[in-house]
Amino acid sequence: MNNKKLILGLCFLALMIFAVWLIPAGNRPSLDLTLSADSEANCTVIMVGKKASADGSTMATHTCDCGICDWTWRHVPAADHKPGETRKIYHINQYKTWPPEQGLKWDLYQQDFTGLEIPEVPHTYAYHHGMFGYINENQVAIGESTIGTHRKLVNNTPAAKFDITMLTLIAMERGRTAREAIKIMGSLAEKYGYGYNDDGEMLCVHDPNEVWVFEIMPVGPLWKPESGKPGAVWCAQRVPDDHVSVCPNESRIGEIDLKNPDYFMASPNVISFAVEQGLYDPKSGKPFNWKKAYSPAEGSARSTEGRRARLWRFFDLVAPSQRFSPETPNMDFPFSVKPDKLISVEDVMKLTRDRGQGTAFDRVKGIRGGPFLNPNYYGTTRTICDPRAEYTTITQCRGWLPNPIGGIVWIAFGVQDTSCYMPFYAGITAMPDSFRIGDHWVFNRESARWAFDYVDFHVQVAYSYGLEEVKKAQAKWEAEAVTRTKEIDEKAMNLYQESPAKSAEFLTGYCLNNAKNVIDAWWKLGDDLLVKFNHLKFYNIEKRQMDRSQPAYPEWWRKAIRIFDVIFEEGVK
Question: How sure is the predictor about 40, in pLDDT bands with cuts at 50, 70 and 90?
């Protein structure tokens, strides 16, 4: 039995070596057979300052990556409140869902009332939210990435009234600027405690003028509100206007300068709590470093065999002239960098679809991707594009337009490379009904998300060919929406000058109609893919004939199989 296992292992090794040998020398990657488990999180937040963007907007992304989480969205209208009214605070678990027959998550979460009610403000703003609050009518926008912290700081006790989702909803309701939203979340977490469902979290909070990285940690399970001490520790750093940055589930704030409030904010215990917990020694002579104290993440792209490659890959893509090395420890990367060229929203979309193509961490190098170069088969590399994505957002804030027109959240359901970004202006008054429903365990043609999973499922059959069909659809629907943005802006602006309500009605109609057309197109695309690659043949739908000149499998794959068969047969004799 042991000999057979050894023989099979040698066969596999020989096959891998042969597969690499088949690839032309100029494209041949280094052989890497080390196996390692993937980490659990892949929420990538890309951030673009207004002077680093092609059009002067600020932008941020969020890959909601859970793989089993709720993907539904809703619009929350603005509201006026009477003196003495209170706002109930709920625990909202990022990962918890309910069976559809029990109702919608954004109704059922109210079963998890914390017992806390805080004073309501006279007016709350309209906003759109999915897993988190994403953009409000003031163009305050958010992207999220879990970063973790020391186990002893985790506080999952009922004393911690706020978790990260609830904080973002309150920020949407009350925030007029990014700075204000950060201060609101920080003060509430300090006063009422942070944690319960969450631990170390990062939020990109931006508006038309500024982009901020806000990071927050709980302060341990022994905290009580009556202690008089802050129930959270947090820090925020501003991204320079002409810079871009990224958070790939790793703390990004290093040394801080609280004497420079234009670029740094923090809770009053930011350093003292680290000293108290033995996370920083002021006698060491070293300056205080936030990430080294509260959320150290050791390793580099190379040393982790690609599991921590997203940080290096982003900087390599946006600033290749700086020649960042994959051997550089992630903790040593700069907080932000000036990009080699200005970044457009189309560039950001492309970045979210990156699979590390052509790098040492390419998930299809050797025979890892199989005959159709499928990056989802095998690999240790964590890429920006993630097959477990519930959806990806690109929030875009544009200061030269009124807030309801200037703010846009682009939403792509499912994995980025087989999906399509759809625009939703900050000032619209409704989200599509199909965005409000659906979950992972019940197929539902009324749910928008399933249209994109339907396409993705059929792409997996013959990935390299199927993806080309998706790209054609993206060029039609996604690229057209990007191109039409200026036209839609102008029409909305003309109506806004006449009546803000008419402008909102126009934008709502445009966004809902565009989304419906895209979703219908994706359902049809899924059907076409099923027919076109049925039985792993190539059926020409237009000509109603099978393309017999097109091989189902590439010749290099056939050679690899034949070599493996020979080695295997010799080994088992």
Answer: low
496 Cα distance to chain centroid: 32
Instruction: State mean pLDDT over 45-53.
Output: 98
pLDDT of 380 reads 82
**CA angle at 511 for the pair 506 and 514, rounded to the nearest 5°:** 120
Which pLDDT band holds residue 572 (cuts at 50, 70, 90)? Answer: low
CA angle 132, 133, 136 (to 5 degrees): 165
Instruction: Say what the pLDDT of residue 116 is.
Output: 98
Dihedral sign computed on CA atoms, order 511, 513, 518, 520: positive
Q: Cα–Cα–Cα angle for 191, 192, 194, nearest 5°? A: 110
Are 318 and 244 spatial neighbours (Cβ–Cβ below 8 Å)? yes
Return d(Cα 252, Cα 268) in angstroms, integer. 20
* E strand spans, 510-568: 539-540, 545-546
Q: Looking at 56-165, which runs of residues are DSSP E strands? A: 58-64, 74-76, 79-80, 86-90, 113-119, 123-124, 127-129, 133-136, 141-146
Q: How far apart are CA 517 and CA 438, in angstroms?
A: 19
- Of the candidates 450, 453, 451, which has an alpha carbon nearest to the alpha carbon of residue 415? 453
Q: Is residue 354 scored above 60 in pLDDT?
A: yes
List the Cα angle 187/193/194 in 5-degree steps: 90
Tokens of residue 204, six digits = 């990109």
pLDDT at residue 569, rounded to an integer: 78
Enter the DSSP assignment of 29.
P
Tokens standing for residue 260: 């420079």
Amino acid in position 103: G
- What six digits make up the tokens of 73? 């969205």
| Dihedral sign, Cα of residue 347, residue 401, residue 60, residue 321 | positive
Which backbone phi and psi does 117 adopt, to 5 degrees? Answer: -125, 125
How are beta strands 201-206 and 211-217 bridged, if at all?
A: antiparallel
The two structure tokens encoding residue 365 = 């190098």
458/526 Cα distance (integer angstroms) = 7
Strand partners, 539: 546
Beta carbons within 8 Å of 74's beta carbon, 6+ residues apart:
106, 128, 129, 431, 435, 436
* Total-model pTM: 0.91
The pair phi, psi for residue 53, each rounded to 5°, is: -95, 155
When the pLDDT of each residue in the chain is averaged and rounded to a whole number, the result is: 91
